[in-house]
Amino acid sequence: MKHSFLDRYSNLDSFIHKLDPRTKFIIALVFILAVISTPPIRWQVFALYLFFMAALLLLSKLPIFYVLKRSLVVMPFVLMIAIFIPFIKEGEVAGSYNIGLWQVSVTYTGLQVLWNVLIKAWLSILSLIWLTSTTKLPNLLKGLEQLGMPRVMVMILSFMYRYIFVVVDEVMRMRQARDSRDFGGSRLCQLRTIGNMIGTLFIRSYERGERVYAAMLARGFDGHSRTLDRLNFSQADAYFGISFSLVLILTSVVNLLY
Fold first, then answer.
1. What is the distance between the alpha carbons of residues 34 and 30, in angstroms, rounded to a whole number?
2. In a domain, 14, yes or no
3. Whether the predicted model's global pTM rises above the 0.70 cut
4. By mean pLDDT, which of 6-15, 65-74, 240-249 is the weakest?
């Protein structure tokens, strides 16, 4: 499994890549807060937010198709959750449809809520992709710790990113071993085999975690996130972070007032 699928383009040379991880995290957080506070009928404001995000992506020199592909991978899961809202939300009926013995109705209010969920989720996902793609994950986690995130959460995220590749490789080896033994039979037999694989994977992961933790303690682990690169908050971080955040805040305030 590729071990750089999350921060694949974190080594590019751009103005955004040189910013401090804390600056980029605050910008992404302010952007998400501005997006979720916007009423669904303000489509002009959403277009403006999309323009801001496109500007950040261009400054980052990230491949546009790569960003769009990653964002569209997540959107089906959002759509699966929100697709039923137009059918259950009360309001003026936009249309009725007969599905077998049932008659379902779509309301304008439900369609508006669906649009609201999809556009806000997509813009938020774009901001997170921008953040993770322009920042090395160890540096981002170190910045989050310095911003006050609980140390336990930082270490959980760090271990998850480090060992998810190990777990996936273990799954691939188990799958190869299963296929080499002519995996077949009835559906019940196949489900039983998959259940045994899941149980075995859980036990192996638990035992590996115990061994890794014991090895870390033996090497003086104290719970802090350490990296070779030192975080440096420069004047460029202050000017860019404050300017962009003020633009987002003013846009959101003007939108709410008018």
1. 6
2. yes
3. yes
4. 6-15
